[in-house]
Amino acid sequence: MTSACRCAMDLLPDRTVRSPWLAAISAGVALLLVLASTPRIASGEAEPAPEEAASSLREQARRMYLMPPDVVRDIEPRTYFGAYLERVEPDSLILPEGVRYETGVGIDRVVPGSPAEEAGFREGDIILSLDQERFGADPDEAVNILSKRLKEKKPGDRIRIEYLRDGRVRRVSAPLGTRPILDMPSKPHPELASIFQGRRDPSMAERAVEQFDLLEEYAEVASQTAAVAAVDYNHRQVLPERPNPFRLQEVTYLLRRPTELALVSDGICRSLEDEFNTEQRNTAELVIQAAGHLDETVPRPPSPPRDLGLDGLIGVMEKSTRMIGEALDELTHEEMELAHRLLPTLLDYEDDWEEALEEIEDEGARKAAIAEKEEELATLFRAALRADLGRLFGAAAYLSQLSDPPAANRIRATLADFPAKPFPQIYEQSFLGDIRLVRETDFGLVVIGGPGTSVYLADAALIVDLGGDDYYANNAGGSRRESPCALVLDFDGDDVYACDSAISQGAGLLGVGILIDYEGNDTYSARNDAQAVGLFGVGMLIDLAGNDSYNGDQFVQGGGVIGLGLLCEGEGTDTYRAHCFSQGFGYVKGLGLVLEVDGEDTYSAGWKYADFRIPDRAFDSMSQGFGFGMRPWVVGTGADGGIGILLDSSGHDVYMGDFFCQGSSYWYALGILLDRSGADRYLSGNYSQGAGIHLSVGALIDEEGDDQYTCYDALCQGAAHDWAAGLLHDVSGNDLYVGHHLVQGGCGTVSMAILADGGGDDTYVAGDVAQSQGAGVWRDIREYGSIGMLIDGGGEDTYSDARISNGATITKETWGIVIDSDTASGDAYAE
């Protein structure tokens, strides 16, 4: 799992953590943060209404950086060999007597049906020469030389290869093929099509591309990025007849049209917050909208019955349980057992299955274990594809309606005077305090707590608590094998939810789990797989009021893997703490959401699981609006990623993370962090603050306020790496940006990155200005540059790069564009 996020950081210059520059900027950042510890709030100015802010965002995107999609062209067919290459240590190259080669290139895996397989190559073969050219003595350089030589060939060319197998040098001549191009569906966006129809004013970026004669370069970068949307990089197919079955249509659309990232991200967020805000609470429609972004259609559920007393609630639970069973009816018992066992282990730093496979020393045993794991994952994914996810999500939509005001009011009024009834002695130590009812049913235990303090120590399928400061040390709305549908309705009190068991506090594993807390200052503590996570199911945690605290370790606080995890918070000042895979995290075919309606909130993720690049300083977060896919690295069974969203509508908020966070993504995924208003502070490490990494797209959008963005290293603040796209768009305010390398509209390895600031007196600080502040970087591995843009819409601005001044429009090599407008319209090209 951790190896799946190994970016090609060897492409970046090496830097030690104790470099003089980093020490200096660290001190500077500390001073800046101290000076700005109190958010700057303009007195006497009303915050813009959400619709006004959205309109401003859309208008700025159109005016500043939208590019017409017709520049994207078909890429020349790529040469295809169909083998995954690996380095070979010189001391492991055992050659026949009299044969001399300094090194070779190993074949780690052969793609079924590829030219390499047709030529007879197998895993473990070592290529010694290509067309009589040897590869030198450096094992890493040998892989690069062979890869480059293969790219230089054309489809149909014959190649002559010498290779080593079973101690013998063999020779083969074989033709190269063409990489298969897939027809991947793309999300339709008719609401955006009109932007490019008829007569229109070109954006500032479009005019700069024309001014600096960069249309050919822009078109090539855009076309290469679009082309990866039609490619399958998995070594082993889950369903050979259906490549990339988990590729989300929204990701395909954005890889093809990356400059529309802000508009699409805002549209996704608006579709969700329109259903859950200060004036509207329609949770069924929220589920339906979220499922739609996973390309699943959910029929609108029937309304709950008018009678929502005990019998009515039991009826709702029975119906929801039946719907879940019908959704999973096609799965065998063995597949269900595999899913229960395997899904919670996919994301676990403390039990890293990929690392364990790599550490098997015996080569034969390692390859056998890898093959077994590949088949296990393929079986899991094939089972998921046979499940009726639309019906499964529909069960959640139906059950979630009990949180909406009409139903909630009826439940509370009907059960307000529910009398205490004797319950089986076996449960006397499991449910303590003001307990009115414990009843056994076919779908699990039903428990009713009174208005006094209650303590829940055993799992239950349905809990209705009428008030009091309560303590939950159980599943608290977490599904179980015997109870695939679980629900908690807690109407009042300062409650504590504390559970070390996975699948708790609004979590669904092969089922639906919902926790709804209506009032009170509540505390939620869990370890893994909890607090609104859905694994092949739906998990929801809805807290409507109070100053709340969320604490967890991994895969918590809004996460989805082949499912939905929706954490919705109403009013109050809330605190979120986690270590990894949290706070709006979307994994394979999953959508994870944190939707915060109001309050001064703090989000913290990281500082436990070290990142291998800088293990004495950096930690992986993968949180706060982060999309992530299963890159086929150790095993060949890969799967494309999901959508992670952190949406905060109001308040002066603080976001703290490290590597991989804050509106970013990795491997065919989408990450979004959208903050509607407030003076906010963002602190992170690498690959964050609007970064797309490895065939992925990410966006950080802040619509209002004097904001501070700090990244202590690289690839942040509108950044991208490896056929990807990243965006940071700050609509208004006097903002501060601090970073080091490949930041503030910096990117490499044929990618596109944009930092757009709509206006205000802004400060841009970067350590390496040659590769930051609107900079595209040439990478030999792709033999091409990238498109990096920094566009500022107005104000008195300050830049580290001495080449940039107010009112300037400049270009940088391979290929950067910087536009600073000092016109009243905010358009550098306005007459």
TrEMBL record:
Pfam families: PDZ_2 (PF13180). Coiled coil: none annotated. Residues 82-146 form the PDZ domain. Transmembrane segments: none annotated. InterPro entries: PDZ, PDZ_sf. This is PDZ domain-containing protein.
